[in-house]
Description:
Layout: H1 11-20, H2 23-45, H3 48-53, H4 79-115, H5 117-132, H6 135-146, H7 150-176, H8 180-187, H9 192-200, H10 205-228, H11 240-247, H12 256-283
Amino acid sequence: MAQGKSGKKSKFYVTWRRLKRSRTAIIGMFLLSIVVFFALFADLIYDYKADAIKQNTRIRLQGPSWAHPFGTDEFGRDVLARVVFGTRPSLYIGLMSCLLCCIVGVTCGALAGYFGGVIDNIFMRFFDVLLAVPSILLAIIIVASLGANLFNIIVAISLSIVPQYVRITRASVMMVKDQEYIEAARAIGCSTPRIIIGHILPNCFAPILVQATLRVATVIADAACLSFLGLGIPAPAPEWGAMLSAGRAYLRDAPHIVLFPGLAIMLTILALNMLGDGLRDALDPKLKN
């Protein structure tokens, strides 16, 4: 049992114990672990070039079978192999975009919330402008201007959702910065960076973590939307949104081309949302009892 020097259970242990009680969170973790497993071990399951990239028009548009459980696409490529390899760009874009958002959003939000005044006005008015533009529209504008590649997609999606991180961090910092232990840290001469990083941000971690978990799901959906519009990862790399876009022309004759990547997107987003809801309940101090 994880306990501190005082004999009290650690915050991590208490949060984990409460998280395990949530069936929703456990189901979400289970589904997400399957997606992560396929992303990590895709090369051990399929050969990337032979199964996901190589074309074989003799078996194009075949339905599910023992040889191809999810059928084949319009170029004779195995749909299951492409769905499996499609987990990598989707998760990578989701994680990297949210990581970049956390770095930028938490930094700007912490500075705006702690100092207030002119710094607060400068940061918040800039992000208010970004917030006024629909996130997916802003991402489309950026990718269309810079070009469709993995790096630009991550930057575009990050800029489109970073205002939410700034607002959440700013609100949390403003609630914490006037607490007595912060005043005590100032009184003993702690520097401003040490107060923000060592005392304020750790106590603002819970809402930021929940926001990040839920936003990964949104980012995956946005990345799929960009690919569906032709602004995603260039072909022939497998990506769920691009598979949906390519398969819509064959929806009547071969619905499996659209069905399985669509299910992959749905289950991944569902898993992340369920995990995020569980984390929100586990970290909510009002529900500790």
